[in-house]
């Protein structure tokens, strides 16, 4: 089902834009997968960091996500709307913290 106008209109708000993975959460099929792809926008610059700053930023994004997603869930009147993909983004960052790049 294509996203409705109110969902698209919510992207004007920076918080809704972020928790929807820069709009990727509005994909009509597999929004979580598209949210994971959107995580690359955050991960690629972070991949250059040492582990400690990487972890600190990831924890910060996790905590920010609690507030962002709660706010959006409240606005939508639902607990875990499919368009909310911030958890996929942070989950990807957590997973990639354990990957050693050489």
Helices and strands in order:
Elements (H helix, E strand, L loop, with lengths): L4 H5 L4 H6 L11 H16 L4 H26 L9 H12 L5
Helix pairs in contact: 3-5, 4-5
Descriptive key words:
mainly alpha; 64% helix; globular; 102 residues
Strand content: under 5%
**Terminus-to-terminus distance:** 42 Å
Q: How would a crystallographer describe the biggest sheet?
A: none
Shape: globular
Mean pLDDT: 84
Order of helices and strands: HHHHH
Q: Segments where pLDDT lies below 50 for 5+ residues?
A: none
* Secondary structure category: mainly alpha
How helix-rich are the residues, as a percent range?
55-70%
Strand runs, count: 0
- Discrete helix count: 5
Work out the radius of gyration.
14 Å
């Amino acid at each position: 089902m294509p996203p409705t106008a109110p969902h698209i209109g919510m992207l004007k708000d920076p918080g809704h834009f972020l928790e929807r993975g820069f709009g990727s959460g509005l994909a009509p099929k597999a929004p979580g997968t598209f949210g994971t792809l959107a995580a690359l926008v955050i991960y690629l610059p972070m991949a250059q960091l040492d582990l400690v700053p990487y972890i600190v930023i990831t924890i910060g994004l996790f905590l920010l996500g609690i507030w962002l997603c709660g706010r959006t869930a409240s606005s939508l009147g639902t607990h875990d709307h499919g368009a909310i993909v911030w958890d996929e983004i942070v989950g990807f960052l957590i997973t990639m913290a354990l990957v050693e790049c050489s």
